Predict the 3D structure of the following.
Amino acid sequence: MQRLTARATAGAWLAAALLAPLLAFAEGTVQHLSGTLSVQRADGSVRLLSEKSVVRQGDTISTERDSYAQIKFTDGGQVTLRPSTQIKIEGYEFTEGKPESDNFIFALFKGGMRAVTGLVGKRGNRDAYKLRTATATVGIRGTDYSAIEVPQPQAGEGPQPNQPPPGVYVVVSEGLVAITSGGVELVAAPGQTVFSSSLTLPPQLVPPPPNLPQISAPQSFSSNNPTTINGGQGDACAI
């Protein structure tokens, strides 16, 4: 009996040791999902995600058409992705007792997202949190904001009807947001909208375009009930 108990204890320690690296690299968790969400890992593998799936540094995360996803990070922050959106977690480091090591850098390649920041960006280094877009870099001072990219027309296409001018729009709901492009930093306050059309031109305050896509996630995202549509919870399926 003692020998079996010792073996069971050793097995438990081995399982914990194997699981520890996985937990250490789990920076965020899919909290809510409606539709289809996929990830391309740093090694090039592509998987479908479901609620409770983890995301980590180096991941490129994409929502499909008519899909919404909300990801919660270990610092308490969260990001909501609208349909046809793609982001990449370029850098993430958060240790509760080490604010000087905070780091959260991610990129918006297309689509739109809303971010509510956690402890990274609210403590320690004011430059620890950054969002990179095609036309500007966004820094925050503890905030709630949305970033929407309006794409350039495809080759041979003219301006799209009922679409605002192409570029990146940052809408501030709470706190302060610093948008930098063309070597100029513009700090926006709640209720303001900033437009950046090019990396070489300074950002500018604009009236909110009436036809700007909105980040309106399903109402179920505000509850604690599971909302996964594609597959079981907690797993990632290889494509």
The mean pLDDT is 83.
